[in-house]
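task queued by scheduler; priority normal; single chain, no ligands, no partner chains; default sampling; output format set to structure tokens
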Amino acid sequence: MTALSGVRRTRTTIMLATSLAMLMLLAGFGYAGYKALRRYEGAKKVDDASAVIPDATVAMLATVDDANVLTSLTLLVSGADGAPGGSMVTVPVVADTSLGFGDERLPFTEVYAAGGLDELRTAVENSLSITLDLWQAAAPAEVEALLAPVGDIPVQLPVAAGESFPAGPATLTPGQAVQVLNYRAEGVSDRQRRPNVAAVWAGIAAAATAQAAAAPAGTVPTTAIDASAPSTTALVPPTTTAEVLADMFAGTVNARELMADVYSAEMNPTGKDVEGLVRTDAVMVLATIAPRSMSTPASGLTFMIQTVPGSEARVQDMIALVLFTGGNVKWVKFDGPVIETSRMLFKQDSIRQQAEASGITSSEGLYEYGDSDLAYEDIDVIIQLGSDFLLSTDLPEVTTTTVAGGAATTTPTSGSAPPGSTAGSAPATTG
């Protein structure tokens, strides 16, 4: 079997396993036909007549070395609705695109080596439940040109990247930053080199943020206005990675790496350099900063989770519950009210019935029920977490594929910094 056919076989395995799981889960309660049509997105963003979810451009930047080996994978998420700034989310290049299904572990590095940029883009969308607007695999010279606008990059390297870049504080040129991103040593796992990748992107975010803060008003590029559009406020979305970065460099930029856990020998019998993506962490981060781009692969309802700042660990627990019961998490907001009892708000009673049938509401006394004051596009249920859930230590443990411990440490506001992110220092690492 060729490597590319292995990629395709693994994708087929994932699809079959997911379909079987959904059929088993939904066997006890059928959904009306219109729900199936409504739920189908074809991996595209959707609209309805309800209030619009904030929009952001999501670009994937894959860096490769001179041997065309994938060395880093970063999602560049612009500010909501054209606002300057944004978030840089680094994804482990050895994250398993099979999501733990089947017998074969397939990291992003192998997907890219076998199928190139198009296969990598598809694997990222499937693995992270995100719709990408732009994607690019950039050679060293191209990455250096993309980073040139930020100038010097302050970093705190956790580990040495060869003799040229010892561990500790440093100020890198864009070219040197690319060298650190691409540095690989024989016998060194990605988990060992990954803290440096996160540190470089945190340094880029810090340099861009400082530069934007120091620039006189009106001198920093922002998203263009389409003069030919009916509305004078219509935004022209970026069409290249360079344009996304230009918009991001105009404001505060945050950096965050997604979590991944080492597989057991049983899950990874061949000993590949591959790790399991912490799905709840990825969903939480991306649903906070790019809700409109979140896809809804499951056949169940779509949820918004709203809570108070500082609740990242419990939000991941709720995400696990939603995913376990066949739902989709579309939007996470850390601007919720301080309440004692958690609330579950529905657009209409039929949706509540579907939620009850899924099992998400089966915890007696966990929720108060009510109608949603505001309907958002493609959001069926709004969950507002109260102290009964946030402070409880006696809730059932729910796990999903590749979900493991680990919680973000800093507090975002909805639509801004993803949990655990920084704007000016390296984010906490997971390994």
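post-processing summary
- The longest strand covers residues 70-78.
- DSSP finds eleven helices and 14 strands in the chain.
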